[in-house]
Design brief:
seven-stranded antiparallel β-sheet; VC0802-like; about 40% strand
C-alpha cells in the first residue's frame, strides 16, 4: 500500500522548523516519521502524519510550500546486509531510490524504512512478488 508523505519546503532560517511543527501541533496533526534535509538556502522536511490532507491544507493556508507524495514503507529484517538485499531487488528491476529514512513502528524484529523511488506502485508489486514485507501507515501511527 502506498503511504502519503507531506513534504514541506522552508527557508534555511532559525525558527522555520519550529513554526511548521507548531502549526501541525496546534491543528492536532500527529507526526509519526520525519526526515529533514537542507541546502544552503532551503530545507525539505518530509513527514508521515496521521492526516496528510489536513496537514497540506493548514500549511497552505499559512502560505507554506507543501506537496503530498506517494512513498512506500518496507519492513526489513533487522540484520547485516538485509537492506542491501532489498536495494538489489529494486536495482535489478530498474527502480531507483531517490531517498529513504527510517522510522519507529509496531513491527517486531524489523527495521522500518520509508522509501521514495521513481515508480512506487511498480516497486510495491515487485517487492510483493519477492515476498518482501511492506507496511501501511497503521503500522507506525501511535493510535
Amino acid at each position: 500500500m502506498l503511504i502519503k508523505q507531506v513534504s514541506v519546503f522552508l527557508e534555511n532560517k532559525s525558527g522555520k522548523l519550529s513554526e511548521i511543527i507548531s502549526i501541525l501541533g496546534e491543528n492536532h496533526i500527529d507526526i509519526s516519521a520525519l526526515s529533514m534535509a537542507d541546502t544552503a538556502d532551503y530545507g525539505v522536511l518530509r513527514l508521515i502524519v496521521d492526516n496528510p490532507e489536513k496537514a497540506e491544507k493548514v500549511l497552505k493556508q499559512q502560505e507554506i510550500i507543501v506537496k503530498v507524495t506517494n512513498v512506500i514503507g518496507v519492513a526489513i529484517n533487522d540484520g547485516p546486509g538485509d537492506l542491501a538485499k532489498i536495494l538489489k531487488i529494486l536495482k535489478d528491476n530498474s527502480l531507483s531510490v531517490e531517498y529513504m529514512y527510517a522510522c519507529v513502528g509496531k513491527i517486531e524484529n524489523s527495521a522500518l524504512v520509508v522509501m521514495k523511488n521513481n515508480d512506487p506502485e511498480k516497486a510495491l508489486d515487485i517487492l510483493s512478488k519477492e515476498h518482501v514485507p511492506t507496511f501501511d501507515v497503521k503500522d507506525i501511527y501511535r493510535v
